[in-house]
């Protein structure tokens, strides 16, 4: 499936690696101007440089999504640079070590909430403020299969991903009459640097992950990017408020 996003502007958070980087590449390949944001300034500049060398129009920005002021500044910079904001993939997120729910420290709960849930809320808030004025736009929030089902020892992480689905559905209802569509993508276990770190740390059992996935493999970051572009594109023009699983069949069980 190919897209023509020429003349449109996309913002991707957590764009330095994994699903964010793959989605930024896909938007750029489809002709969009792309704003790449990430907390890791060196990494996001490297990712943007690779796209720029291919002739793509990109803007790298360092941004900690847990800080609403930085999010607001990133959206303002996007509009200052390109004049508009048409699409956004709110992908930045973190994982915390698994824990018995009775033992998890409050600091772990606060940190995952600040990035995964508050970060998506802040991004969506400031993106919508711009899209409301335009009367158009498409936002995709990154939830997870953990936003659709529970997972023992990951209560706090799962709460953030369930919360993203709630934010998405409620905001979609509010903005449907205003020309802005808001959806969520719910990835399964995807072959990304974060998943590699979890495997290396013994926090994810590869054999168990494959056994729980009917397609019996990890997903690819490019497969999430494909779903995001479809949700932002004209083929999904009557789709809003959806939490789309891209999980190899995991949640179909």
TrEMBL record:
Keywords: NAD, Oxidoreductase. This is NAD(P)-dependent dehydrogenase (Short-subunit alcohol dehydrogenase family). SMART domains: PKS_KR. Gene3D superfamilies: NAD(P)-binding Rossmann-like Domain. Pfam families: adh_short_C2. The keyword Oxidoreductase applies. It comes from the Bacteria. Belongs to the short-chain dehydrogenases/reductases (SDR) family. PANTHER family: DEHYDROGENASES, SHORT CHAIN (PTHR24321), ESTRADIOL 17-BETA-DEHYDROGENASE 8-RELATED (PTHR24321:SF8). Residues 8-188 form the Ketoreductase domain. The keyword Repeat does not apply.
């Amino acid at each position: 499936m190919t897209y023509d996003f020429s003349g449109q502007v996309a913002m991707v958070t957590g764009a330095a690696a994994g699903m964010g980087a793959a989605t930024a590449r896909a938007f750029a390949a489809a002709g969009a101007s792309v704003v790449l944001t990430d907390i890791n300034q060196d990494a996001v500049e490297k990712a943007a440089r690779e796209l720029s060398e291919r002739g793509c129009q990109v803007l790298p920005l360092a941004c900690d999504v847990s800080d609403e002021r930085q999010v607001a500044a990133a959206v303002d910079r996007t509009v200052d640079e390109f004049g508009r904001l048409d699409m956004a993939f709110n992908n930045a997120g973190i994982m915390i070590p698994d824990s018995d729910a009775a033992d998890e420290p409050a600091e772990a709960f606060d940190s995952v909430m600040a990035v995964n849930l508050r970060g998506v809320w802040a991004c969506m808030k400031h993106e919508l403020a711009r899209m409301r004025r335009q009367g158009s736009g498409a936002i995709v929030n990154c939830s997870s299969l953990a936003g659709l089902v529970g997972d023992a020892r990951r209560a706090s992480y799962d709460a953030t991903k369930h919360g993203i689905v709630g934010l998405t559905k409620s905001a979609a209802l509010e903005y449907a009459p205003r020309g802005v569509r808001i959806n969520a993508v719910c990835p399964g276990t995807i072959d990304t640097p974060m998943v590699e770190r979890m495997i290396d740390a013994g926090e994810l059992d590869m054999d168990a992950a494959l056994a729980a996935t009917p397609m019996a493999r990890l997903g690819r970051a490019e497969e999430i990017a494909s779903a995001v572009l479809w949700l932002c594109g004209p083929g999904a023009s009557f789709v809003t408020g959806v939490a789309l699983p891209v999980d190899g069949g995991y949640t179909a069980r």
